[in-house]
Amino acid sequence: MNHLVDIVKAGTLAPLKDAKPPRAVMVSVIMVVYQTGPALRESLDLVLADPMVDEFIVVDNGSPPEDALHLRDLALAEPCLRLLQGHGNVGFAQGANLGAEAARGRALVFLNPDAYLQPGCISALILASEGQSSPCIVGARVLNADGSEQRGSRRGEVTPVSTFLSLSHLAQQVPSLSQFEIHRQDEPVPLTPIAVPTISGACFFISRFDFQVMGGFDQAYFLHVEDIDLCWRARRQGGSVIFQPLANVIHLGSTSKTNPVLVEFWKGLGLARYFRKRADNIWQWLTAVLMAPAIVCIAVLRPAFRRH
Length: 308
Hints:
The chain has helices at residues 39-49, 65-77, 92-102, 121-129, 160-167, 170-173, 208-213, 226-236, 260-278, 282-306, and strands spanning 6-9, 12-15, 27-34, 55-62, 81-84, 107-111, 115-117, 136-143, 154-155, 194-195, 198-199, 203-207, 240-251. The chain has 308 residues and is an alpha/beta fold. The protein has two domains: 6-150 and 185-253, Spore Coat Polysaccharide Biosynthesis Protein SpsA, Chain A (Alpha-Beta Complex); 159-178 and 259-308, no CATH class. Strands 3, 4, 5, 6, 7, 8, 10, 12 and 13 form a nine-stranded mixed beta sheet that branches. The protein has a two-stranded antiparallel ribbon with strand order 1-2. The chain has a two-stranded antiparallel ribbon with strand order 9-11. α5 packs parallel to α10 (282-306) and α9 packs antiparallel against α10 (282-306).
C-alpha cells in the first residue's frame, strides 16, 4: 500500500523520504482543522470509512499536541490520508486552498472538522452536479444532531439589508420583513436538487477544474464568509449553486475551543468586506460601508444572545 505524509512549511510540500507515488484518485475530501475539540476524531473516522473517499487531505492550522500527534499517527497508518502541518494558523480560506493545491482528485469535497459525513452524501453531491452550468457548487443538507435542518444549510441572497434583518431576527419577528430572511431551513425540503443563491460551506462539492478556474477561495477572508463569496462568484460567472437535499451531513457547530466572540468578529468583518466587494455602484458601496459597524456589532453580540 502507498501512503504519503506531507508537511507544509513556508508554503511548500515536502513528502517524507520513504513515500511512494500515490495511486490515482477521483474524490478528494479536504478538511481544515484548528482547535476543533472532541468532534474531530469521529469526523476523521467517518471520512476514512467512506468508500467514496479516495484521498483525504487534512490541513492542520493548529491543533493541541494530543490532536496533532493523533493526526500524524493517522497519516502514517492510513494510505489515503495526507497531512499538511507546520504552516500555522493561516485562516480557513488559505488553508482550504493549500489542501486543494495538494489534491489529486477531480472531485473536491470540502468538509468541516465538526461535521459528520453520512452514508451516500458524497455520491449524492456529485450526482447533483451533472448537467449543471459551470462553475458548479453543490451543497449538502446540513443537519443538527437531532436531525432537524440547520440554520444556514440553504440561504437566499446575502445583502447588507438582508443580513442586518436576519442577524437581528427582525425578518423573523416582523411579518412584512419576512422576504428579507436569508435562511431557508424552515421551508419545505425539496425532493430533488434545486438552485439556490447560497449553500453552507460545512460540506460541499466542486470539481477541481472549476475551483482552479475560479481561483479558489478569496484568502482575504480569514474565517467565515469565504463560502458566501465563492457562491456569489460562481453565479456571477454564469455557473450554478445547487442544494442537494439527499446529501446529509450532521454539523455539531460551536465545538471549537476558539472564543465564540472572536469567531463572530471575524464573521462580521468578512461580511463587511463581502458587501464592499460585491457593490456594483457608489450607492451600494456607501450602504455597505455605513452598515458595516452595525453588522459587526450584531455579529459580536450573537454569542451573548444565544446564552439567554
